[in-house]
Amino acid sequence: MSDIYLVIGAAGGIGRTLVSAWAGQGKQVLAVSRTGARDESWPESVNVMACDSSDGDIAQVVAHIREKAMQVRSAVCTIGFLHGEQNGVKVSPEKQLEALNEAQLNAYFSINTIIPALWIKHLVSVMHPDHATLACLSARVGSISDNRLGGWYGYRASKAALNMLIKTASVEYKRRAKNTSLLCYHPGTVDTVLSEPFQGNVKPEKLFTPEFTVTRLINILETLDPQGSPYYRDWDDKNISW
Predict the structure, then answer these.
(1) 241 in a domain, yes or no?
(2) Residue 70: which H helix or E strand, with range?
(3) Cα separation of 96 and 9, whole Å?
(4) Of 38, 42, 213, 217, which has the fewest CB atoms closer than 10 Å, so is most exposed?
(5) What confidence tens digit (pLDDT) does each residue in 169-190 have?
(6) 112 falls within a domain
(7) pTM: predicted TM-score of the whole model, two decimal places
């Protein structure tokens, strides 16, 4: 059996950087994205696969991992959606109740909640039995107890639902993949396409590069103890209240 490091959403700013960082450490990396395209900065040792994030496609990726006699030492789902167009629907964070609509809510939950949940479902069978980590990019605004400003209904709710799925899955992982630590990770405001329209009110020192938040994430993953799983932490390795 060989160890692999899995990056889901490898075409995004954080995902692409995470692939480079792990590959630079000599890890065997499997980079998964919708197109399966290879970034020109990645070494040839990085394996790439296309996956449309449907249940069947995810199952095929995990079947490939199993057929190649590989075990996942660490997996990170970097997929997330805040604004833009999804299936012909223009999406932006809601500022008031009147802005809520079914199509936009469906877009938020389908990407921010359902896709990571399907990966969590399938990966349980291929996590390394000795010690492994599985992280999903969450957000501080997904904290129910920390919500004092309101707004951003769909994004907040979809991230809160993701947190609950991870917290619930951790109970079953303790039986089926007991040495796997599950993490909801808040990367901070990162200079990527996702945060670009909202960077105006961010102090320069609080706008992070993908390299910064990826380095912090890797450091946190290396310290997690399965007995304390699940974790909900930010880039500064501080706990966030659920």
Answers:
(1) no
(2) strand 70-77
(3) 30
(4) 38
(5) 999 999 999 999 999 999 988 7
(6) yes
(7) 0.93
